[in-house]
Design goal:
The structure is a single chain. Helix 1 packs parallel to helix 11, helix 2 packs across helix 3 and helix 6 crosses helix 7. A six-stranded parallel beta sheet has the order 2-1-3-4-5-6, sandwiched between helices. It has a single domain, classed as Alpha/Beta hydrolase fold, catalytic domain (Rossmann fold, 3-Layer(aba) Sandwich). It is globular. About 45% of the residues lie in helices and about 15% in strands. The chain has about 250 residues and is of the alpha/beta class.
Length: about 250
């Protein structure tokens, strides 16, 4: 494994490794020879019995500890979506020498974007109903699908419901993740790690302006998909994988 580039994939709010779906083989095809690993944030996926930390910094420390426990040594290449992007940036603050590069997908951060861009108002009610336990698993996952995907995905809702029932995220953990994301503040100066920002122009969860603001502030390259939703790896994984591969050879 020492000769293989190690790619660590980080998902977002209440999502887990299983939500990467078909993107994993798509990324593997674009990065031949790479070792691709998915990590769950505490409270999600295989770690659903753990309590989510209340800060993004603590989430980053937990991810780093997981790799130490698995005896997977740096350098790491991070591909991180949404909340995962914040974790990646916190990681770059804690241990920049562990990272070879970062790809930040549809993420948002203070101080670069206002709260109503970081989470579009249309998402407030579904999130609140989910946090208060007023949504059934079917209602919750259907709402997430509507907010995050623009392309049709036959059968994906059934797949998500299976994940939901196998690894149910506790309301307390969902709340912790939302609060951690809302309070996270990125450094004004660009991280000392090569960074690519990727965004979806038609993202219905996070305003694409957040990615424009981040790329402008840090003077890093920006790639924008013209029609995909927030879950870009699902809506057009081949396109995203190609942008990642192009970033590697820059």
């Amino acid at each position: 494994m020492s000769d293989q580039p190690i790619w660590i994939l980080l998902r977002g709010l209440t999502r887990e490794s299983g939500h990467w779906g078909a993107f994993l083989p798509q990324l593997a095809a674009a990065l031949p020879g790479a070792h691709i690993l998915t990590i769950d944030l505490p409270g999600n996926g295989a770690l659903f019995t753990e309590a989510s930390p209340w800060t993004v910094a603590a989430m980053a420390r937990h991810c780093r500890a997981q790799l130490v426990a698995q005896q997977i040594a740096p350098p790491y290449h991070l591909l991180a979506l949404s909340l995962g992007g914040m974790v990646a940036v916190a990681w770059s603050e804690q241990a920049p020498r562990e990272l070879a590069r970062m790809v930040l997908v549809n993420t948002s951060m203070r101080p670069f974007s206002p709260f109503y861009h970081r989470l579009r108002p249309a998402a407030y009610a579904p999130l609140l109903r989910g946090l208060l336990g007023l949504s059934t698993p079917e209602q919750w996952e259907a709402a997430v699908l509507r907010l995050t995907c623009n392309a049709p995905h036959p059968g994906i809702l059934d797949d998500w419901l299976r994940l939901h029932r196998t690894h149910p995220v506790a309301p307390r953990s969902a709340l912790a993740q939302i609060l951690a994301a809302s309070r996270f503040r990125a450094p004004r100066a660009a991280p000392p790690v090569p960074t690519l920002v990727v965004a979806s122009r038609e993202d219905r969860l996070v305003n694409v302006a957040c990615s424009h603001a981040l790329a402008s502030a840090w003077q890093c390259p920006l790639e924008v998909h013209p029609s995909a939703g927030h879950d870009l790896p699902l809506d057009d994984g081949v396109w995203l994988a190609a942008r990642v591969a192009g970033f590697v050879v820059r």
